[in-house]
Amino acid sequence: MNPTILSVETATLAGSVALSRGEKIVAILAGDSGISHSNTLLKDLDRVLHEAQVDLSEIDLFAVATGPGSFTGLRIGIATVKGLAVTLDRPCAGVQTLHAVALSAGESDRSVALLPAGRGEVFAQLLSVTSNGLVTELDKATHISPQRLLAKYGSLENVLWCGEGAVVNKALLEQQPKSRIAPPAPNLATHVASLAFTSFRENQLVHPDALQAVYVRPSDAELKVQ
Description:
CATH class of the largest domain: Alpha Beta
Low-confidence stretches: 221-226
Structural class: alpha/beta
Mean pLDDT: 94
CATH topology of the largest domain: Nucleotidyltransferase, domain 5
Number of helices: 8
Radius of gyration: 17 Å
Distance between the termini: 49 Å
Helix content: 25-40%
Number of strands: 11
């Protein structure tokens, strides 16, 4: 069976949505980094469904990027997917954002996936990606400064730096020997869809209530209280 999957990525400022059948992407739509996901997400989902000529009731599986990333964006995306999945009684796949970032850069024994975390810092994780799209964690996601990032990963050979965080810190990363920097994926939701299909094949889907955001660090509000 090739399930029809509706995938949402609101962890990044622009975000994206995708509709797929099995491994095939049927429709994609990139968001607008200048407009809140709360104002655009439902419209974007409707546009993708209309483009693919698919009714919402035909969706077999909902997928969503669970973080790390924009705290507000994650909450909007996860809440929207939960609401739709509960209403239609469909299963979900929660996909960690840095896994999708690593997949977007292609096969690599050592990929450091990076996303901006605000205040000049990044969310980072070391992963491996096989030619058939299997993503494996080599350490845990962390919140780190660019300087500490180099101290942690700079001694590794043949590292592929990927994601928006790599582009932001390109000048610093290029100082590393044999540094490779992958271009950022414009539609990360397509890679969320790929990982969701893997979860489907491995029978690792979850009930909507089980979806939880992976924040990695406390929010700014929580830090102020502390």
